[in-house]
Write a structure and sequence with these properties.
- The structure is a single chain.
- The chain is α/β, with parallel strands linked by helices and 286 residues long.
- The chain contains 11 helices and 8 strands.
- Strands 3-2-1-4-5-6-7-8 form an 8-stranded mixed beta sheet, sandwiched between helices.
- Helix 7 packs antiparallel against helix 8 and helix 9 packs antiparallel against helix 10.
- 34% of the residues are buried.
């Protein structure tokens, strides 16, 4: 038996995958009616959080954030000893560390997860999930967790799953906003957006070519500017701001990007590769 607490679209999708693979699943959700569909499919409805936790050794959480965990599991503290809590909710790495300490202080083990697909892809080949926390606990439940998506275990530091998860969403959300801005820029001239979309897709696909080389330069801390240096790229960033201003398109995003180049030039990286932006973005780790 496995317990799932939280039955939004992701939680429901996970329950269905587990049921389809022969697992018994106990479910609980604050709004009880959200369990109706998965109960009809074979899940068992728990009346209280304590009942849900008591039903299984492995307890999966799919909640809005980590604050919801305290609210729900705080009503089931007496049932937590000996349980494995796998929190698949989204939050910050530091809140993940605090949550792990809270759970472990109550006699349970804690694994953090970050599921990198939308609900409709849960359990499909495209799905993968970052995990971090105690290796022995993760390995014990690896096969079950693999039903949700390919499990990518990152290490004992419980913060790592959310660190990778949020970093991936950083790329994803920023990319979506960049596309919206570019579409608005092209659309300002009355061009049908369907005409622009294929070019945007080609551009996004080509990004992988640059990222492979960039990763090596970042690791070495070397930024040779033989091709696309900061001064040249900064001029382009300025042109995007000016074009956006002329078109009456929102300036927040292009001005933020331009600021990276302006600060890199001010820091003496004008002749360095665009990867030297990393030096002004990264945290001071001294």
């Amino acid at each position: 038996m496995i317990t799932m607490i939280g039955l939004g679209p992701m939680g429901q999708a996970m329950v269905r995958v587990l049921l389809e693979n022969g697992h018994g699943v106990t479910v609980w959700n604050r709004t009880a009616a959200r369990a109706d569909g998965v109960v009809a499919a074979g899940a068992v409805r728990a009346e209280t959080p304590a009942d849900a936790v008591s039903a299984s050794e492995l307890v999966l959480l799919s909640l809005t954030d980590y604050a919801a965990m305290y609210d729900i599991l705080g009503k089931a503290e007496d049932a937590l000893a000996g349980k494995v809590i796998v929190n698949l909710s989204s939050d910050t790495p530091e809140k993940t560390r605090e949550a792990a300490e809270w759970v472990e202080a109550r006699g349970a083990r804690f694994v953090a997860g970050g599921c990198m697909v939308s609900a409709e892809l849960v359990g499909k080949d495209e799905a993968y999930v970052f995990y971090s926390g105690p290796a022995d606990v993760f390995e014990k439940h690896r096969e079950t967790l693999a039903l949700i998506g390919r499990p990518d275990y990152l290490g004992e530091d419980v913060r790592l799953a959310q660190l990778f998860y949020q970093a991936q969403l950083d790329i994803f959300l920023t990319s979506l906003s960049v596309y919206m801005h570019a579409a608005a820029l092209v659309g300002s001239a009355g061009v049908p957006l369907a005409k622009f979309a294929p070019y945007a897709m080609d551009n996004i696909k080509m990004m992988g070519f640059y990222l492979d080389a960039a990763a090596e330069q970042l690791e070495k801390g070397e930024h040779p500017g033989d091709d696309a240096n900061v001064t040249m790229m900064g001029a382009t960033a300025d042109h995007i701001v000016q074009a956006s201003r002329d078109a009456g398109v929102d300036l927040v995003l292009p001005e933020a990007i331009k600021s990276h180049y302006d600060r890199a030039i001010a820091a003496g990286h004008g002749r360095s590769s665009w990867t030297s932006l990393f030096e002004i973005i990264k945290a001071d780790r001294k």
